[in-house]
Design brief:
Blueprint: H1 2-21, E1 25-28, E2 31-35, H2 36-42, E3 46-50, E4 55-59, E5 64-68, E6 77-80, E7 83-86, E8 92-94, E9 97-101, H3 102-113, E10 126-131, E11 141-142, E12 145-146, H4 147-164, E13 168-171, H5 183-190, E14 195-202, E15 214-219, H6 244-261, E16 266-272, H7 275-278, E17 284-291, H8 297-301, H9 304-324
Parallel strand pairs: 10-13, 10-14, 14-17, 15-16
Antiparallel strand pairs: 1-2, 2-9, 3-4, 4-5, 5-6, 6-7, 8-9, 11-12, 15-17
Helix pairs in contact: 3-6, 4-9, 6-9
Length: 327
Amino acid sequence: MSRLFFAFPAFLLLAMRAYAAGPEHVRSAGRDYVRVDDWARGRDLQVRWNDADHTIQLSNRFARLAFSTDPHQDGRHVEINGVNVWLAFPILSQNGHAYVSDLDVSYTLNPVLSPPQNPPGLRIKSICLDPGHGGRDPGFVVARSQEKKLTLLLAREVQDQLTKAGFNVFLTRNSDTYVDLAERPAIAHRRNADLFVSLHFNAVEDGRDEVKGVQVFSCTPPGATSSNAGGEGDTRAVTGNRQGARSMLLAYEMQRAFLDNLSIEDRGVKRARYAVLRDAAMPAILIEGGFLSHPVEGKKIADPAYRKQMAKAVVEGILAYKRAVRG
C-alpha cells in the first residue's frame, strides 16, 4: 500500500511537468515554430497524417484543417473548412515532425478558429465600399472590359443589397473619377466606417485560358512578407495591423462566401501591403473577384446577372463576419 502511495505522486509530478512544459517549440531562420500536433491537441483537434496526399489533417466537430507537407509543393497552404488559406511561412519539417510558425498561429489560424468578439453594444453598421481604380486609372483593360467600370458597377450592386439588409453604405467614388490610394481608407476613417471592402478584378498576359478564380487579401502581419513577394521585401508593422485579426477573419468569411455562392476557383486568402489595406484603421480586405483575361470568367464578370450574384456573395461574407464577431 505504501508503494502505491509514493508511486502515485511521482507519476503525477511527471504529468504536471509535461503539462507545464507545454507544446514543443523550435527556432529556425530567426522565427519561432510550434509543433503542429502539440498545438492541435491544445485545441482538442484530432491529428491524422495522410501519407497518400501529403497532408496533416486536424479535426473536431467545429473545424477541419489540412496542412500540406508535400516537399514538391508550396508549404504555405492550409485548408480550413474547405477554404484555401495562405500561411505567412511554409510548414517546417524537422526530425519527423511538422511545425507551424507562431506568427501564423497568432495572425492566421487563431482569428478564424477563435474569432475576436466585439464588445457588448458595438455593432457593425457602416460599410465603406472601394471600387478600384477610376478616372485616369482604368485598371486592367481586356477587349472592351475596363476594370474601373466593372468595379463601380459591382460596388453599386453591393451597396443596394447591403442597404436593403440594413447597413449604412458609402463608396469612395460614385463616378468615373480618380481617387488617390491614400485617400480611400482616409474617406472610410472620416466617415467612421466599421468595415472597408475594396473591389477589384484581375488579369494575366500568360495563361489566359488557365488562370482564373477569386482571392481575397488582408494586410500582411508584421514580421512577414506578402504572399506574392517570394519571401522578399517589406516586413514592417503598419496601421492596418491594428485590426489584423479581424481583417483576417473578414477575408476568410468573404472567400468562403464566394466559394459557396459562385462556381469559382479558390485561389485562397492571401496577404498584401496594398496601400488601401496598409493605411486602413478598421478591418479591411481587398477582393480580386475573378480574371477578366479568362475567356469564360471574363464574360461572366461583364454579365449583370453574374455581378448581382457576386454582390450577394459579398453581402453574405459581411453578414458571416458580423455573426462571428457578434457585431
